[in-house]
Amino acid sequence: MTASIRPEHRADVEYLLRLGDTTLILGQRLGEWCGHAPILEEDIALANVALDLIGQTRAVLTRAGEMEDQGFDEDQLAYLREERDYRNLTMVELPRGDFAFTVLRNLFVSTWLKLHWERLQDSADAELPGIAGKALKEARYHQQHAADWVLRLADGTDESRARIDTALAELARYVPEMFTADAVDAAAEAGKLGPSRAALREAWEAEIASVFGECGLTLPAAGAFVSTGTQGVHTEHLGRILAEMQYLQRAYPGGVW
Amino acid sequence: MCGAEVVDRERAAWRVLETVLDPEVPALSLVDLGIVREVHALEDGLQVVLTPTYSGCPATEVIEQSVVDALAEAGFGPVTVVTRRAPAWTTDWISDDGRRKLREYGIAPPGPVQASEGVAIRIVRKTAAVACPRCGSTNTERLSAFGSTACKSLYRCVACREPFEHFKPI
């Protein structure tokens, strides 16, 4: 078995891992739909979105490895960390659920990522503006695709509406984490690396409201609970997804295509 | 190596690259697609600057290798490939010749990108009409925003009933 690696917990590296782990884990979750989506076009669409997210992950984790300076590459960072060293939003590690859950989560996360990429185009970092400029174009397509489906399901049959309502009730409690800033956000903002999560809330809520307003959905008021994936404290689901993701690298150390 | 030689070698290298086809859309060369940004003649060999299309494009490594192989085979000596992300690749960089080749191949070429930039979320989709590459009718409908590769979406022509692919403006 290949030994786990442990990146140093520097603020700038943490900031990038929060982005890169969020795209990595969501990409993996969407990949689970391959061969299982309700219609062929959506099977292709979800796999396409997953592919974009994995591509974005490669760029961001490569940059995180360069900053961290222990020589870790994208593959080592993606496959050889322990659960507690992942920094993704908790929302993306939740099981894929049904199609309504998937498209609503995609709407929430793609909007959050899009707002990040927009602002990261002005990052003082040497590489991030280039990565963000590319990713932004992709995120717009992801957001539009998810929004189309949320509208269609919320405005569809009683069954599709009930499923969107259930998905919203399940996902709402993981929303506050998207905007609860901490020392890592403060350092990123001060160092002009990227925006604080807190600075994205207003724009995110406005974009979600523009979709929800069209189909009679309302974002529930935030409760006191704040999930902690970005702090490295995860739900039981992340360990299982990592077991699947990491199996090949652990069984065949250093294996490449 | 004098200035004129440098220019000649770079021109010759561009001509070689015009024959290297994109592995996923083999109607287009890498030059038509606009991903070859610069070619520099070095004392020994060449440096080629490429800008990838999509972050997760699975053809990226194949493209790099095909550039190296084609130029090496044409006798240009050692070739290094540099990946440049910024400015991000856009379908506006596809040449006019490339657009014609796409249409002939049965893929509707992308419209200008400005139309889709900076719009928050389009609740009522106002995408420009996409002309059917077979019969030319603009009476077409989108079946899916995503297609067989990252760069395409699926359409159907209502006039001639043929399904076709559209190169997404990005």
UniProtKB/TrEMBL annotation, chain A:
<dbReference type="InterPro" id="IPR052703">
    <property type="entry name" value="Aromatic_CoA_ox/epox"/>
</dbReference>
<dbReference type="InterPro" id="IPR012347">
    <property type="entry name" value="Ferritin-like"/>
</dbReference>
<dbReference type="GO" id="GO:0010124">
    <property type="term" value="P:phenylacetate catabolic process"/>
</dbReference>
<dbReference type="InterPro" id="IPR007814">
    <property type="entry name" value="PaaA_PaaC"/>
</dbReference>
<protein>
    <submittedName>
        <fullName>Phenylacetate-CoA oxygenase subunit PaaI</fullName>
    </submittedName>
</protein>
<dbReference type="InterPro" id="IPR009078">
    <property type="entry name" value="Ferritin-like_SF"/>
</dbReference>
<dbReference type="InterPro" id="IPR011882">
    <property type="entry name" value="PaaC"/>
</dbReference>
<dbReference type="GO" id="GO:0005829">
    <property type="term" value="C:cytosol"/>
</dbReference>
<dbReference type="Pfam" id="PF05138">
    <property type="entry name" value="PaaA_PaaC"/>
</dbReference>
UniProtKB/TrEMBL annotation, chain B:
<dbReference type="Pfam" id="PF01883">
    <property type="entry name" value="FeS_assembly_P"/>
</dbReference>
<dbReference type="Pfam" id="PF23451">
    <property type="entry name" value="Zn_ribbon_PaaD"/>
</dbReference>
<dbReference type="InterPro" id="IPR011883">
    <property type="entry name" value="PaaD-like"/>
</dbReference>
<dbReference type="InterPro" id="IPR002744">
    <property type="entry name" value="MIP18-like"/>
</dbReference>
<feature type="domain" description="MIP18 family-like">
    <location>
        <begin position="11"/>
        <end position="72"/>
    </location>
</feature>
<feature type="domain" description="PaaD zinc beta ribbon">
    <location>
        <begin position="124"/>
        <end position="168"/>
    </location>
</feature>
<protein>
    <submittedName>
        <fullName>Phenylacetate-CoA oxygenase subunit PaaJ</fullName>
    </submittedName>
</protein>
<dbReference type="InterPro" id="IPR052339">
    <property type="entry name" value="Fe-S_Maturation_MIP18"/>
</dbReference>
<dbReference type="InterPro" id="IPR056572">
    <property type="entry name" value="Zn_ribbon_PaaD"/>
</dbReference>
<dbReference type="InterPro" id="IPR034904">
    <property type="entry name" value="FSCA_dom_sf"/>
</dbReference>
